[in-house]
Amino acid sequence: MTKSDLKSSEFDEYYLRYIDKLSSKTELRKGFEYGKNTTINFFKSIPNEKLTYRYQSNKWSIKEVLQHLIDTERIFMYRCFRIARRDTTALSGYNQDIYINPSNANNKSIDSLLSEFTINRNNSISLLNSLTDENLSFIGNSNNSKMSARAAAFTILGHDIWHMEVIQNKYL
User: Fold this and answer.
1) Rounded to two decimals, what is the model's pTM?
2) Domains in the chain with CATH codes
3) How far is 166 from 158, CA to CA, in rounded Å?
4) Confidence tier at 95 by pLDDT (50, 70, 90)
5) CA nearest 83: which of 127, 133, 137?
6) To 10 degrees, the CA torsion angle through 97, 98, 104, 105?
7) Which residues lie below 8 Å from residue 119, measured CB to CB, with a gap of 6+?
8) Which of 42, 86, 97, 131 has a CA positioned 20 to 30 A from the CA of residue 48?
9) Who contacts 50 (Cβ-Cβ below 8 Å, separation ≥6)?
10) Which distant-in-sequence residues (6+ apart) come within 8 Å of 14 by Cβ?
């Protein structure tokens, strides 16, 4: 299953900013493996003195951005799982900003954050490998709009790229 299989009717227009970061040839399951390695290598390449840097006082630090990637993946894979299992219950949105302070991301080591990312990503890969393409094509209701299970998963991949580009352009 590739991004080119995804239809615009499977997700809210808001998520296009992330999904558009992916090549039309991006294969979902392989994309999670490739994205894991790319993300780990990207964050390992950042100098330690930059990890708590904020380009504006009201913006997250680089460690907080990594924590945000982890938290968002957890939420979107939960959506993916529920939708793939044919759960038609409306899934609520979340306020990403309130997650950061209680996460204590700046007090964690980069190795700890990357370990958390890796464990979480491996769980996501395991889940995706357990779902059929038919399961992933099912459309549910997330944050008051349509979302297919596969759209939730593809969003994660593009979301990672989005934030790594922001870091590259505004933090480094």
Assistant:
1) 0.97
2) 3-170 (1.20.120.450)
3) 12
4) very high
5) 137
6) -20
7) none
8) 97
9) 62, 171, 172
10) none
The two structure tokens encoding residue 4: 């080119």
Give the integer Cα–Cα distance in Å for 110 and 46. Answer: 10
pLDDT in tens, 96-142: 999 999 999 999 999 999 999 999 999 999 999 999 999 999 999 99
N-terminal to C-terminal alpha carbon distance within the chain: 35
* The pLDDT value given to residue 142: 96
Rounded-to-integer distance, Cα 111 and Cα 153, Å: 25
Give the side-chain half-sphere CA count within 13 A for 50: 15
What digits encode the pLDDT tens for the residues 26-54? 999 999 999 999 999 999 999 999 999 99
Distance CA 57, CA 60 (A): 8
In 3-state terms, what secondary structure has residue 118? helix
| Banded pLDDT at 80 (limits 50, 70, 90) | very high
Structure tokens at 44: 């390992």
17's CB contacts (< 8 A; 6+ apart) are 158, 162
Q: How far is CA 139 from the centre of its chain?
A: 19
Average pLDDT over the chain, rounded to an integer: 97
The SS3 call for residue 151 is helix
